[in-house]
Design a protein that fits this description.
The chain folds into two domains: about 1-40; about 45-320, no CATH class. It is built from twelve helices and six strands. The protein has helices spanning about 15-40, 40-60, 65-70, 80-85, 90-105, 110-130, 150-170, 175-195, 200-215, 220-245, 255-285, 310, and strands at about 5, 15, 135, 245-250, 290, 300. A hairpin with an 8-residue loop joins strand 5 and strand 6. Helix 7 (about 150-170) packs across helix 10 (about 220-245) and helix 8 runs parallel beside helix 10 (about 220-245). Mean pLDDT is about 80; it is low at about 295-325.
Amino acid sequence: MTQINLTTDDGRPATLAVRRLSRSASLRGLTSSIVSLFGWTPSSYLILSLFAATLFVIGVVWWPLVEANVILFDWSQPLWPQIWLYMDWLLLGVFAVMSLLIMAGADIKADALIVFVGLAGGLVIESWGTQTHLWTYFTLERPPLWIIPAWPIASLSIDRLYRFLNRAAHHASRFTIAYWLVFPIFYALMLLFVWPALDKSLTIAAPLLCALLILPPTDHRAAVLTFAAGAGLGYFLELWGTTRECWTYYTRETPPLFAVLAHGMAAVAFWRVGGLARLLLFRLLQFKYTIPNTQYGIVKGDGDGKDRRQNLQVRPADYQIGAGDAN
């Protein structure tokens, strides 16, 4: 290899090859630090790719949604100033944060259940709200199918937020008090909000379902933290959607307090349903599956009908409906 003699800042001889090796090592070290900081795994890149592919499909299938924004640009003028002017920075920020969240600690086997429950739950919720005219979309679809994929993405983001809150939260004994303060208040707000549509069967079913989720014994800590994570993310989603008139509530608020808190209740509902699905799978498949360290999820075992406690660290509490991770 040809050596090019150089000197370092302190006058010592160095070579171009050494500098290149040093830069390469520094870059690898920086990349490793970023991956470790954000908790990225091999599944993280697959999850992000699926997210990007979903956005691409929505853009192709529902091209008028994209076209409505493209027509804002004057192609005879410089593009970058217009991008800066017309860029929806709130939407960009929400997308960036959710992209980082869904990549953190991703496990495609565990996340598959979260995605499935989010898709099904989102379809039910959107159908209820739009069919009863509690909220409407600017496309007047009831519901618009292009909004449904947002629910599993939000569910994955809430799962990651829950993990962070679970590690940061202390004073477990106070969560029982918080539970019986937060959820009855939410239930009262829900009754007030849905009262104009209480003559419809779907609206009657919604409060009954929430009562069934709130009253039975559960892990109060996990429920409160999941509710907080869902409501926290829900605020920014509702702020964007209502101020941009993507969807509008009958109260015309931007956004209504109930809508923000409803994201928390939806997150709790998805968590409880995920726990039920996990329990059913555990029983039907005769211990072929076990649960990783997330809110709910599935990791395939060895399939011989044994739980392999020493390898998989199976805990009996993992198979109780509503059991959350308290580690």
